[in-house]
Amino acid sequence: MSEPVQTPQTFTPRIFSGIQPSGGLTLGNYLGALKRFVEKQDEGIETIYCLVDMHAITVWQSPADLRRQTREGAAAFIAAGIDPKRSILFNQSQVSAHAELGWIFNCVARMGWMGRMTQWKDKAGKNSENASLGLFAYPALMAADILAYKATHVPVGEDQKQHLELTRDIAAKFNNDYGVNFFPITEPVIEGAATRVMSLRDGSKKMSKSDPSDQSRINLTDDADAIAAKIRKAKTDPEPLPDTLDGLKDRPEARNLVNIYAALAGLTPAAVVAEHAGAQFGTFKPRLAELAVSVLSPITTEMNRLMADPAEIDRILGEGSARAEAIARPILDEVYDIVGMVRSRQV
Ligand code: TYM
């Protein structure tokens, strides 16, 4: 496939990212995504953040849980520092442009591309005959989330990299097939000390809301005692902390705790090992627990306060959806024109 000629300056910088309301949020979501979304809000670029409820139902969600998790996710964004006036904060299903553009992209993306997605292979596993069609098509909807706004930059954790490469392929194929320079070739923004926070029980596995063991993760709803207990019990090794990062090369669990500390403190991992060189985990873990509680407790408290008024959360999501729709609809109209759909309905 030949790359279309791209003149990046023709696209206004715009940030989009999303989180699935498919369970409680974890420290991985916070450090890999939310915390960085908040930083982006201050960089003078338009920021659009979405609770992707349509992605969530690619695996079964009970309606009551989905509603609660969507509101809880919105509360987490706001509690973490997203200002719904400065950023657009909304839930995906209230802006139908996502589903509409998703369909167009289902017709651009190739079966082979989707079949190579590692997340599809992991989630569908051996039982792919029984997985939903939505789970297979999911990355095309994700491309639509981003490109419905012509977003140029997408902050995410490391696990979303392959989906963003697919988004670039879809944009390039659309531009190429229709002979236009319409969609930007979006840049993934994967940066910081915690782009891949690992399980507290197994340093080779990602920290995930779907891990059956609650001990493997810190949830944004955990109280101070639970956070401290999980860090105390986190798997480590008997060696003390080295004085350089090289000394953590084959110690994934130790490296993970150092990364978490660094991301929470706003330091580099190298600075953390320099500061704690020689410390045993018996000493380092309580320090990490104290730091984690000091960062996360105010967020949890604010989430709980916001969750006491779900009507206000719904109002914020409604307002954000209207602002999102105002950007996406004219872009989608242009897409329909490019594709050759007759648009004659009077509005
Ligand atoms: P989701 O809901 O699984 O995760 C949301 C964000 O959190 C990041 N993340 C992590 N970062 C570091 N360490 C971890 N252990 C960890 N776990 C999760 C994810 O990388 C992500 O940035 N497909 C997406 C949602 C999505 C989306 C989009 C994202 C749908 N449309 C458009 C960006 C743009 C997902 O399932 O993320």
Task: Estimate the strand proportion.
Answer: 5-15%
As laid out across the biggest beta sheet, the strand order is 1-2-3
Percent of residues in helical segments? Answer: 40-55%
How far apart, in Å, are the first and last alpha carbons? 39 Å
Query: What name goes with the CATH superfamily of the largest domain?
Result: HUPs
Shape: globular
Q: Over the alpha carbons, how many angstroms does the gyration radius reach?
A: 21 Å
Work out the count of structural domains: 2
The number of E-state strands comes to 5
Elements, N to C (H/E): EHEHHEHHHHEHEHHHHH
CATH T-level fold name of the largest domain:
Rossmann fold
**Low-confidence segments:** none
Query: How many H/I helices?
Result: 13
Class by alpha and beta content = mainly alpha
CATH domain class of the largest domain:
Alpha Beta
Question: On the 0-100 scale, what is the average pLDDT?
Answer: 95
Oligomeric nature of the chains: single chain
Q: Tell me about the biggest sheet?
A: 3 strands, parallel
GO cellular component, one term: cytosol
GO molecular function: ATP binding; tryptophan-tRNA ligase activity
Function: Catalyzes the attachment of tryptophan to tRNA(Trp).
Protein name: Tryptophan--tRNA ligase
Describe this structure in words.
- With 347 residues, the chain is mainly alpha-helical.
- The protein has two domains: 213 residues, HUPs (Rossmann fold, 3-Layer(aba) Sandwich), CATH 3.40.50.620; 92 residues, Tyrosyl-Transfer RNA Synthetase, CATH 1.10.240.10.
- 52% of the residues lie in helices and 6% in strands.
- It contains 13 helices and five strands.
- The strands form two sheets. Strands 1-2-3 form a three-stranded parallel β-sheet.
- β1, α1 and β2 form a beta-alpha-beta unit.
- α3 packs across α12, α4 crosses α7 and α10 crosses α11.
- The radius of gyration is 21 Å and the shape is globular.
- The two termini are 39 Å apart.
- The relative contact order is 0.15.
- Tryptophanyl-5'AMP (TYM) binds next to β1, α1 and α7.
